[in-house]
Specification:
InterPro entries: WbsX. With 372 residues, the chain is of the alpha/beta class. It is built from eleven helices and 18 strands. The chain has a single domain, classed as Glycosidases (TIM Barrel).
Length: 372
């Protein structure tokens, strides 16, 4: 009997209009605006990227999520790791696609949450634990130019707020499609270093609430290798977040050098994948591996972009197959993939005009070789 492995593709729920995006970046803003407006930064730069058949979908429509789920499943994707944007018990953003999945049981896809637990800020904000979501568009809206640049502030709160958050998550955890390990719902912290002492207490509390709800606890993951306590497993993140000291410094210093020069940071596809494979072979038993499709965040970041050039479906298939085989040898059930639909970062399995269904066909071949 052949072994099985489950590929979880990271999923961005951003492609629908919300009042906050309208306020911060202009009426009707989603990543599609950034994708359509992208321009080449050097000769041979493949921008803009165009979805196959110009399908700039709206994720507030159930039919589009059904299309995604069907396409993913028939091409060997086990589930979506949906980014979760919970800033406080009073502020949640981009939750509609996940709620549509929850409320439409005929959407045939497994799923879990990856909590992007950072505040959102403008590039000029001095907030330490914050992420700039769309720097290329920060100057296009004047509403808060004289403010602190904080768009949505993460506030963990106290135990009462943690309970509100858990009770919201519980309706998803109870769904048969929600991904579990040993009867534990799987939940990932994208930024475990962001006030880890609070996260540690929160996870303890959530674990007890999960047991009260009939589970064997909660299985929490983290991509931050320095914060393993209470977070039972790690999920790696690709392509730039290396964890071994030499590779960590290599990517960190190169990124800083390009930012200082004010030019896009450019990496070679083969080099990045070989570094990922090198780290995968040395990974600990509690770390799930992660590959990437491609990467180019110039639609969001302009000249501050990080770009991996030289990728194509054939190369992706070669390296992804190697990563899957490593994961199988290490007896790891899940492997993460960046990403299903990160169009603003040039990392997507969904078909485009250049390669059509090439990346999905690569996944289908690989999983077809290993499934029962």
């Amino acid at each position: 009997m052949k072994k099985n492995i489950k590929i979880i593709a990271n999923y961005l729920p951003q492609y629908h209009e919300i009042p906050e995006n309208n306020k911060w970046w202009g009426k009707g803003f989603t990543d599609w605006i950034a994708v359509k407006n992208a321009t080449p930064l050097y000769e041979g730069h493949r921008q803009p990227r165009i979805p196959y058949n110009d399908f700039y979908y709206d994720l507030s429509e159930v039919k589009n999520i059904k299309w995604q789920a069907s396409l993913a499943k028939k091409n060997g994707i086990y589930g979506f790791g949906i980014y979760h944007y919970w800033f406080s018990s009073d502020m949640q953003l981009l939750q509609k696609p996940a709620e549509l999945i929850l409320n439409n049981k005929d959407i045939d896809i497994n799923f879990m949450f990856i909590w992007d637990n950072f505040s959102w800020k403008r590039t000029w904000s001095k907030l330490a634990n914050g992420a700039s979501y769309a720097p290329a568009f920060d100057d296009k809206n004047e509403w808060d130019k004289n403010g602190d640049g904080i768009l949505a502030e993460l506030k963990y709160g106290e135990q009462s707020e943690w309970k509100i958050h858990f009770e919201y998550l519980l309706q998803f955890f109870k769904d048969n499609r929600y991904i579990k390990i040993d009867n534990k719902p799987v939940f990932s912290f994208y930024q475990a270093r962001n006030n880890f002492p609070v996260i540690e207490k929160m996870v303890d509390y959530w674990d007890s609430l999960a047991r009260e709800a009939g589970f064997n606890g909660i299985m929490c993951l983290s991509k931050d290798i320095l914060y393993p306590v209470k977070l039972e497993r790690r999920m790696k993140y690709s392509p730039f977040q290396m964890t071994t000291p030499f590779l960590f410094l290599k990517y960190k210093l190169k990124s800083k050098m390009y930012l200082k020069k004010g030019t896009p940071g450019i990496w070679e596809y083969d080099e990045v994948w070989k570094d990922i494979i090198k780290e995968a072979k040395m990974s600990s038993k509690d770390t799930y591996l992660c590959g990437f499709v491609d990467y180019d965040d110039s639609p969001r970041r302009g000249k501050r972009a990080r770009i991996v050039k030289g990728g194509n479906p054939q190369k992706f298939e070669y390296y992804m197959r190697e990563l899957v085989n490593i994961s199988l040898k290490q007896n790891k059930e899940f492997i993460f993939l960046m990403a299903w639909n990160e169009w603003g970062e040039g990392s997507y399995l969904e078909p485009d005009t250049e390669y059509k269904y090439g990346y999905l066909e690569a996944i289908k071949k690989i999983t077809g070789e290993i499934d029962d």
